Fold this sequence. Notes:
globular, alpha/beta, 8 helices, 15% strand, 2 domains
Amino acid sequence: MSGRLAGKVALVTGGGGGIGEATVRLFLQEGARVAIVDSDLSAAREVAESANPDGERVLAVSADLTREGEAARAVGETVARFGRLDVLANVAGVRVWGPITEATPESWNFVIGVNLLAVAYCAKFAVPEMTKNGGGSIVNVSSANAIVGRKGMAQYDATKNAVLSLTRSMACDHAEQNIRVNAICPGPTLTMYHVRRRAKAKNISLEQAEVEMRAAGAPATLLKRQAEPREIANGILFLAGDESSYVTGATIMVDGGLSV
């Protein structure tokens, strides 16, 4: 199998939809064998079956990555199936709306668990496996709003900023093991999650919601539009593969110019 990830094994969290799904599909197209890890097993299986119908190069795993043992199991199942691990793409994330005056211990635990602890837990168990093979690449998905402030997203944005600090420290810790650790910061991205949320809020069809969201664009960005999930996945692919062999500890903005 040829491609920029030929011969490599990747684990993608949040691979059942959105940016994670786009990353899975692109990794498979570029020759990787891929473990799709998602809290929704049916979604992971649906992506697996459509992206690699014969199932030879894909594995669907259900896991609650906010629990360290579940992260260990997901990595373990990946290695048991494919024999190694070369790339970890930490894509899974959740949002919590509202200022901190409306935050609760439960909302803090939820957003920190998924957006920060799951990243750390997956990396904890991925690093030893990558070390066995002489190195690897970890790509953590943060957000442009880790850098650019906005109203109503304090908890989410705080966790995404923490991911950037975690990325830099991990890059320092694991450089001697030839493990590169980088972060990517997407800007506004049109995913089915956002389309469904708009459709439900306005009581309109998914098709109409998507049309409205595309028409609205993203005025805060220089390009005045939202990204397609694959455009973010392209950035993840660059950091995952050998083309970025001299890049570690970096934060790559893929945000349509939002941050400038």
